Amino acid sequence: MTTTSPTRLLLFVAGLTMPPLAVLAANGLAPMAAVVGLLALARLWSRRIDLAAGWSVAALSILLFAWAALSALWSPVPLTALGSAARLGGLALIGTAGILAARSLDSHERSGLMTGLMIGSLIAALILSVEYLTGNSLSGALFEVRGMKPLPPGAKSQFNRGATILALAAWPLVGWLTERQGRKRGFIPLAVIGAVILAGDSLAAILAVLAGSIVYGAAVWSPRGAARLVVVATAAAALAVVTVSPRLPTPPASFTSLDWLPISAHHRLAVWQFTGAKATEHPLLGWGMESSRVIPGAEDRLDTEWFTPDGKSKGSLTGTRLPLHPHNALLQIWLELGMVGVALTLLLVGQATRDRRPAHLACLTAALVVASVSYGAWQSWWVSALWIIAALCAPDREGTPA
After folding, report:
1. N or C: which end of the chain has fewer CB within 10 A?
2. What is the C-alpha separation between 75 and 367, in angstroms, rounded?
3. CA 276 to chain centre
4. To which H or E segment does residue 315 belong?
5. O-antigen ligase-related domain: which residues (predicted)?
6. To 10 degrees, the CA torsion angle through 63, 65, 71, 72?
């Protein structure tokens, strides 16, 4: 089929735009997902594509957010809970449209999309390289241009959201190039992006690259085994976070027992310990959607000075026991939606592993790793990014892996 030039150009621009946008203004991924979703719906309508196929993709996501909406009945913030559930349900619908539209692309259309993504990813990697080599000066300058307070010395890069998205976007590129040019050339984008990420200060992005690479290798050897590994590891993590986290050491005791960790990690331990303990109080139904924001005790201060055994200060820990969300998706789901929400999430992961292409499983793994250590589970920009990446991973209608 002959591809119309405007369609391929539009796909090229979409792929080109996403990675730099993720680095420079990650919140812009939410409106981008909305625009892409509307265009995808228009394509599906114009081509009379059967939307029934989309229900298998969207059903579990919609069921999860329906449960979230129901939990508004016992949530301490019912209106916020309903609003978030509706927003996430809407993202699931337009995200599903994006996946279906991606599946309808022919090889020429996908080539335009992935060529744009490759160039955009290299531009984003260049921006991050400059950022890291200059001591995070770019994001600091951007803060000042926006009229915000200058970043303190030693602060992490404010572009690290983009680094995590880049760690996910590398895998569709690997799959696409591997199919066309072989595995050696297919790994060039991952090698470039991985090198930049390893030079940076985003632990989530680093872990995503490493975990994704391990699962990719396992999937090349045994796709079914790798898929099972992802499901079992996710289920084990879901059980571990709610059983182990309440027993985690917290500051100031953790300063002695885990003195090799950076001070920010000690705060994270305290957040996870508090969240895990609260989750066990309502394990079946949870506290209700968005309850992380107002859970009793969340505002208790953790302000503590860290001293070495010889009395020297290693820094000050400041913050609350739970600042808005626990920076762990599984813990947040346990806390807010309980065992029912966790079960639906595991079913969703299991459904995603039915596609056993190595690049897809690697991307899924990378996303799960990032979700386990960073961001709120319901943040619009993050959920939007996941739906965009899912569409990029979808095979085209000729069955070519992305």
Report:
1. N
2. 28
3. 21
4. strand 313-317
5. 190-345
6. -140
Q: In terms of C-beta distances under 8 Å and separation of at least 24 residues, what long-range contacts does 134-139 make, across chains too?
A: 136/201
Q: What is the pLDDT of residue 158?
A: 85
Which burial class, exposed, middle or buried, applies to 313 when counting CB atoms under 10 A from its CB (0-12, 13-18, 19+)? exposed
Pair of tokens at residue 395: 């095979």
Give the confidence band of 52 by pLDDT, cuts at 50, 70, 90. low
- What's the CA dihedral at 12, 15, 20, 24 to 10 degrees? 120
At residue 301, the 3 state secondary structure works out as: strand
134 Cβ contact list (under 8 Å, min separation 6): none
Q: Write the burial class of residue 69 (CB in 10 Å: 0-12 exposed, 13-18 middle, 19+ buried).
A: buried
pTM (whole model) above 0.90: yes
Calpha distance 351→1 (Å, rounded):
31
Predicted local distance difference test score (pLDDT) of residue 49: 72
Decide: residue 28, CB within 10 A, 0-12 exposed, 13-18 middle, 19+ buried: middle
Selection from 49-53, 143-147, 267-271 with the highest mean pLDDT? 267-271
